[in-house]
Amino acid sequence: MRVDRKIEFVFVVLLYLSCLWLWSLPFQKNSLPYGEVDASSHFAVADYMTQTDKPIGLLPYYIDKRYGGDNDYKNHVLWYHPPYHTAFSIAQIMGGERVLPVFLANAIFSSIVLLSVYFVIRKMFGFLPALLSGFLLMFSMRDIMAYLWGQWPERMGFAYLPLVLYCFYKYARSYLDKEEKPIYIYLTGILLAVNFFVHPMTFLHTAASIFILVILLFAKERKLFFNLKHVSLAIVIFLVIISIFPLQTMNVVVRLLPGGKDTPTETNRVSISRLFMWAGGLSAEGSVPDSYFSYNQMIGPYWTMILLFLGVFIIFFRRNEKDIVLISWLIGLYFMVHLDVIGQPGRVHRSLSASAQIFYPLIVLGLLYLLSYSKYLGKYKTYLKYGVIAIFVILIMFSSGKMAYSQLKGAYGGIIRVTPYQYDAAEWMKDNLPRDSEVYQFGTLTMAKSRWMWMLSDTYIIYRDIFDERDLVNATHILMDYSDRAAIGDKNTVDGMQSWEKENLANSTLLYNKNNIRVYQRG
């Protein structure tokens, strides 16, 4: 399908702005922070950069208390490469406030995979497959859930996979056509390095797919399809870029070395039968809901599986070079989703969140293959083709689209997210408590909210579901947060907290007392 460039531009802009509007629903009317513990840690790193006006190196006390051991190569330093969080810090500075710019930038970064998939599918298969693939990606529930929970760098990291595959394919094609364009292999090295910076796990996804693509292209062509000098220079470019942040790069290397945290272990190995399943048999130990493993609730209605299988059949049957790119992408994902078979379960369920980016183009290819038979219907073929596409879009809107809208619209409503009272208390602690303070917190409804108050206040906060006197040993302050319990009418907890406060804090100094939140300095 040929389309005017200006019309295509309008369609793409409308598509992406629609996606951005949808994904920004959680903070359109309430700009207070939300998300699980990962979200607060990403925010804290960027926020500290903004406060100090420089990229983070050594972790400040309040972040180090939680993440000081996450860099296996060198403790007490940032565990992630800093560019991603630096971008959030720049957003804070440009936006002129602390929270909303970060969440807006995150919505842009997390949804940008739509544009990368659109670009690659457009270049290889045309405008309509790209547009429909992008449309489906707006409603990918695994992407949306991970985005809401706080796996932010991971969301952006997957956007590099199709771009890297495409660049490598373009280089190989140019070499085979005897019209070498080394710029593409150099871009492959650059984008791989940036992918490594954004999130190491997504880099492994990309590397796995590139490895498969090399094997499949060699099997197809039966000859080399690259210039060793060009590839060597691309590798040098990659190594030079990742060496810019040696402490973070070595953290990844150490984790992957034998005996590291991310190396396979025999004790974690699962049954070989997992090889014949996709999400079946996976367990995330309660870290995600059961719906996360459901095709119907995460990818689309069950009837789309017919189109998906048809799309997979088509690319394996045709096996042209463009199809081989998709095959490599799919097999690379399959490998990452089945790492538990060789004893590496830690990231497997999170790898599932990369499935929509390849499943949706395959669904679209399956649909368009069926519609290709409309050519036998004479003058009615155009009406039938676009009529079926319109029905497809409507069905998706009222199934996946409705589910995505509901999830995003209702995300972290009410007191599930940080309240204005808690935000004000956190700001007060940030401005008034010493940076080496340790605050024991009572009453806050969830650990995620407590963690947000921890990172918003720049103060180490101790929170437990079950009270433990040992946590009070080093506590310099006590935070009595009655606001959540009062809001839900939890009288028993409120009475218990008041009794403990009266018995244990009579000789402590009350520093803050607003909106059912009190901060004491221990006497």
Please state the average pLDDT score: 93
Question: What string, H for helix and E for strand, traces the elements in order?
Answer: HHHHHHHHHHHHHHHHHHHHHHEHEEHHEE
What is the CA-atom radius of gyration, in angstroms?
A: 26 Å
Structural class: mainly alpha
Beta-strand residue fraction: under 5%
Q: Unreliable segments (pLDDT under 50, ≥5 consecutive)?
A: none
Instruction: Name the helicity range.
Output: 55-70%
Large-scale geometry: globular
Biggest sheet descriptor: 5 strands, mixed
Strand order of the largest sheet: 2-1-3-5-4
Per DSSP, the total helix count is: 25
The number of E-state strands comes to 5
Q: How widely separated are the two ends?
A: 76 Å
Descriptive report:
The termini are far apart. With 523 residues, this protein is mainly α. Among the domains are: 156-409, no CATH class; 416-521. α23 (447-456) links the parallel β1 and β2 (460-462). It has helices at 5-23, 25-28, 37-52, 61-67, 83-95, 100-111, 113-125, 127-137, 141-149, 152-157, 160-176, 183-198, 200-221, 228-242, 246-256, 295-298, 304-318, 321-337, 348-351, 355-371, 381-409, 420-432, 447-456, 483-487, 491-504; strands at 438-442, 460-462, 477-481, 509-514, 517-521. The longest helix is centred in the C-terminal third of the chain and has 29 residues, at 381-409.
